Amino acid sequence: MFKFLKGVVGGSGTGPKDLPYNIGESYASAWGSWTHYRGTSKDDGSLVSIFSLSGSSAQDGHLAAGRNGVKRLRTVRHPNILSFLHSTEVETFDGSATKVTIYIVTEPVMPLSEKIKELGLEGTQRDEYYAWGLHQIAKAVSFLNNDCKLVHGNVCLASVVVTQTLDWKLHAFDVLSEFDVNSSSTGPMLQYEWLVGSQYKSMELLKSDWAAIRKSPPWSIDSWGLGCLIYELFSGTKLTKTEELRSTASIPKSLLPDYQRLLSSMPSRRLNTSKLIENSEYFQNKLVETIQFMEILNLKDSVERDTFFRKLPNLAEQLPRQIVLKKLLPLLASALEFGAAAAPALTALLKMGSWLSPEEFSVKVLPTIVKLFSSNDRAIRVSLLQHIDQYGESLSAQIVDEQIYPHVATGFADTSAFLRELTLKSMLVLAPKLSQRTISASLLKYLSKLQVDEEPAIRTNTTILLGNIAGYLNEGTRKRVLINAFTARALRDNFSPARGAGVMALSATSSYYDMTEIGTRILPNLVVLTIDPDGDVRSKAFQAVDQFLQLVKQHHDRITTGDAIGHSNSGISSISGDTGLLGWAMSSLTAKGKVSEHAPLAPANANTPLVSVASTASSGLDATETVPVPSSLNNDFADHQPVPSSPTSTDGWGEIENGIHEENYSDKDGWDDIEPPAALVSIQAAQKRPVALPKPQVTNARPKNTGKAFVDEDEEEYWDSKAAHTPKASKHLNKPAASPDDELWGEIAAPPPKTIVRPLAVGRGRGVRSTPKLGAQRIGRTSSS
Known about the structure:
The protein is of the alpha+beta class. The chain is 42% helix and 8% strand.
């Protein structure tokens, strides 16, 4: 039932006040007596099209045909038929005159004639688009004639409209009627055929030979109309008389035979529109085949889909750009979103998206990408991370922090080294958009684990990432993380590019360290690398030492001139030239997760390569000689150093040494720094180099041995470990069982100095010096040792 409203039209040019849509500007053309308007919904502002038809009285013949068109459009549904949304009929009064108006609201469309002018296609691209449009209209006509036994009655250029996705749709159903197969009937089969222009009528319809029409196939009238549409389309002019259909100069040669059969003078010999779709050579082109494949994607097997999507990026460049962006792109996004498309389709999606403006990209592509991050398909995840630089800048901070990062973070602990590395590299794009809470509570924990990953390339790139995102950490986090990550781990890594990356990271982040940290923690660790076995590491170490010494000298000069009195702990600016991003290590991992120990590193710039792989020798140094120190220094050390309550490392990684294992790792991010006691600050330099220890002063708790000097084993282990900053596999002692994380952290952090005098253990040889052991060791003692 139609809804008849009686009232006064509200506003000017906005339509009836009770119509839930706003009426905008009209198009220049429309079918018949209808007027086609642009419109919007009053609820959500979505675009619509509004068609209106007015008459002087309710009995007007045009209004009766219009009501038939509304009824038919509402009940007939097909992908290539205009979608109905709403209709109403309004009666208004203007003095003594009455005006009745019918409104039909549909999906937003544009007349075909105006859309063709707007697109301005030429040559092959025009023919391919016309082929796709005719293919759609032929399917709609075939559906009406063959499946519904309906006759449209006036197929022409004016009865076709184009959607926002450039699909062609059939409308203007005012004349539409059932095909009457009752040969005994004598009345007209098409009640409103008088609305059809004579130039569009076939010979039998023009003569009103209803008996011949009833004996003809159901498609005979509409096949003639389709021929008229083809003529108007390719000639670019509106058909004015039937004789013009004989002019075939503008018709493509591949379509000409079918065009002539559609316009056959004998109704029974006219080509069925379903046969036109199946047999015509004209419809076999790249655009039609590509869209057809996309529309039946779910029916294709995985091999066909993979092959298609790998070819699609190159194929898209050959198709009309507007059709690719407005038709193929939505189809591709939908296929990816609902799982019908394979991972290679993401490459095509991003390539098509690169042709959009930033605003359109955010609306048409980004929502699909965000949803894909929740996919469990590892191939999709890899493809997303590999192309993150193409869309990462378009992501908002809120979306990254709340919707993307939780899914990406699962890759940090993935069993595939290749995926772990891709996840790590993606943080260079995502980290600037993360909140401080997410960085501190989640990201730094994962990076702490990756710095001890089994893959050397991942360890190296973790150091590089930390150097690059240091500016996004708050001051407290930087002080707690950077020096510990670079000096305690990166500079002691047995993979030379990792050590080189640590040196470069320290140089690039030099503005974040105060003078105390530079003098007591950074320079001592860098100086050791000036005798590194790897030449590239040595070169970078010398450059870094020169840089930090220059900073210290500048600080000294400022204090001397009175410019920085009382500000010795202020931040120092980086030397010019170290402010750029560090380059990634060249990936040594394949998709299967294999690694090469000789992975080269990408240079940060053309002049300063980040890390070289000329040598991958361990950075462990064999300390064969020791420098004697006065006994007074040793005695002073023994007398004044507080005895720590537990063996806690002073390099900031003591929590593992103290027994904090994996089960409570979530409470810490792995970067906590334990500051050394105040008494140790003055002797930091002495702690950073190997020395020969003289006989310590012992108490009565340990009996004197007049044969050989006795040295506490804990003290000897500490100094020896300082002499060799990288553990050697051949020097490992038997250790008690520990978790894997405990072992990794134990190997990179040297135990603190200890001078506590302990009673002689049972079974230990009195006065016997233990053999010096190189590297940071943890001695497992039992009652029988």
